[in-house]
Amino acid sequence: MNAQFIVDGLIAGSMIGLGAIGVTLTYAILRFANFAHGEFIAWGAYLALAVVAAVPFGMVPIGPFSFGWMLPIAAIAAALLTGGLAILIDWLLFASFRRRGSATIIMVIASFGASLALRSLLEFVFTSKPVYFTRELQIAMPLGGGLRATPDQLLMLGVTAILVIAVHLLLTRTAIGRQMRAVSENPVLARLAGVDVRRVIRTVWCLGGALAAGAGVMAGLLVQIRPYMGFDLLLPLFAAAILGGIGSVPGAILGGLLVGLCEALAVQTVGAEWRAAVGFVILTLVLLLRPQGILGKAAT
Amino acid sequence: MIDLVGYGAFFLTIALSYAIIAVGLNVQWGQTGLFNVGVAGFVAVGAYVSAILTTPDAAGRLGGFGLPIVVGWIAAGIAGAILSYGLGWLTIRLRSDYLAITTFGFAVTVQLAALNLEWITGGPFGMGFIPRPFAVSADDPFRFGLLNLGLTAAVLLAAYLVVEHLSASPWGRVLRAIREDETAAVSLGKNASGFRLQAFAVGGALMALGGAVQAHFIGFIAPENYLPLMTFQVWAMLIVGGSGNHRGAIVGAVLVWAIWAASASVIGTVLPAGEQARGASLQIVLIGVALCAILLLRPKGILGEKRVVSRYLGKSAAEPARQREGTLAP
User: Fold this and answer.
1) Do B322 and A101 touch (CB under 8 A)?
2) Nearest Cβ partner of B109 from A31, A128, A280?
3) Do B288 and A102 touch (CB under 8 A)?
4) What residue segments make up the domains of chain A, in order of their start?
5) What is the ipTM score, two decimals?
6) 3-class secondary structure for chain A?
7) Which CATH code is given to the segment(s) A4-289?
8) Do A114 and B292 touch (CB under 8 A)?
9) Which of B108, B291, B292 has its CB closest to that of A276?
């Protein structure tokens, strides 16, 4: 067996983990499984691409990397826009269901419909042809132990680590983070205690959308950009969020890395064509053995 | 004129096979509130099981049993029931949307298996030569079309009568009681999970049967027939028709399929060949938006069902259920 699957798995796992943070937060605070979350990944990538394409300069490669200073700017713009998109969809769709107290499952169906519409809209505007941020070729550097990684890949691992630490600090050390946890524990009590629940919900969408856009830009840089990129990640996202334990941000990133590693291992041992089934196998095992996930609390 | 009748029969046969699937989904969702996002997976299982059992020998894959069509259909239904029971058993103790996620994963995996297990499914090229009912009159398209329409309608009618009978039976009453107030049903000594699982299995069997009927009518199946888009179409049928009501599911199936076929033919004639793929994605955007709009504006559908058990309780019955589900208060 080749140990290279560790590098491939960690990189795929970073993208899954960043997406799964959004899934787990939506699930813990808004209490439904959002099937449209994968589309935020794809929209983030296409929005960043639109910014990069609109500016005719700034993509001359910096140092060992394949992209120029325009890409980080585009990524930040895409994160803000995708966060805004998530808030917009909540306002158009989910807020009305919350207001009339619809069953959770109605929200899930609506998110399924929104997912299809958002994805097909991308396909309509950009067609289903894969596109790239840059055509620069990168040579993988040896890391020792027979492992190889490109400079872009190493940078993205670092960026993921920074983002995860930032989200963790936001949730544990700031007022809005405490309010988010309060709403997830008990929304009625939180509201009575003076927490602005609507502001908390906006923050959740914005944060989830922005992190998904980050995952999308990474996937676009390291793999490719296509309308189905987010939808294909949806099952791994759910598997990671449930494996890590719903509501736990460290759990989501841990789950993401584990799912990514299992996928890379399966590609090497079983074959790349079965990659998409790994999420389902993990999901089944978690639900059978430990439904509350690794870092989750058992239901009371 | 003959052409028009022929097309009408073809259209209705497909629509009614979707209606069988929609009735199956209605048994699961409309009657018990179990959310299945893997409809396409169950339909595919039914189609493939029946096709494998009934096709003549083919090089490079399992088959050659050449069994009668009716055996294939029964086997499809049994396979659908067993698989849905298993998936339901895995998640029924957990929150309702875990079932949604699991069935979604199931459908992805079934599609992957259809694509990659070439020795069973024929891989990406699919399976041909699936025996068609009334194949002896295939050289008379008019007669052939009407006979097949009659057969599909008969299967749908049988399915409808069975589920209506079940709904009216004590079993159906318990299901409705569970859907509307689980605590009350449980306090009367009803095993809620057991009843839900049974309903989920009945629904899965009907979906697989619908898939088998469809596969035999068309005579050819391939993995790309069973994309998540199909799940979405069946959901749209149920929501348009009004969930909880089997007649609504049938009306919704014909209506949504008519809208789908008509918009596809408009795109086919209006747009140039190069733009048709984009037109098709626009079609999906519109249907997605329409589904959300119906959920927002007319959540009970066209023929929505009234609450039966707790209609006398008014709003007070809905409140505790809401708290239990944990939705955020406005």
Assistant:
1) yes
2) A280
3) no
4) 4-289
5) 0.89
6) CCCHHHHHHHHHHHHHHHHHHHHHHHHHHHCCCCCCHHHHHHHHHHHHHHHHHHCCCCCCCCCCCCCCCHHHHHHHHHHHHHHHHHHHHHHHHHHHHHHCCCCHHHHHHHHHHHHHHHHHHHHHHHCCCCECCCCCCCCCEEEECCEEECHHHHHHHHHHHHHHHHHHHHHHHCHHHHHHHHHHHCHHHHHHCCCCHHHHHHHHHHHHHHHHHHHHHHHHHHCCECCCCCHHHHHHHHHHHHHHCCCCHHHHHHHHHHHHHHHHHHHHHCCHHHHHHHHHHHHHHHHHHCCCCCCCCCCC
7) 1.10.3470
8) yes
9) B108
Query: Choosing among B29, B36, B95, B101, which should be mutated to test the A contact, i.e. which has the most A CBs within 10 A?
Result: B101
Q: What is the pLDDT along chain B (330 residues), one digit of tens a residue?
A: 667 888 888 899 999 999 999 999 999 887 777 888 999 999 999 999 999 998 887 767 777 787 888 999 999 999 999 999 999 888 887 777 788 889 999 999 999 999 998 888 888 888 888 888 887 777 787 888 888 899 999 999 999 999 989 888 888 888 888 877 888 888 888 888 888 899 999 999 999 999 999 999 998 999 999 988 899 889 888 888 876 688 888 999 999 899 888 888 888 888 787 788 888 888 888 888 888 888 888 777 666 555 555 444 444 444 434 333 333 333
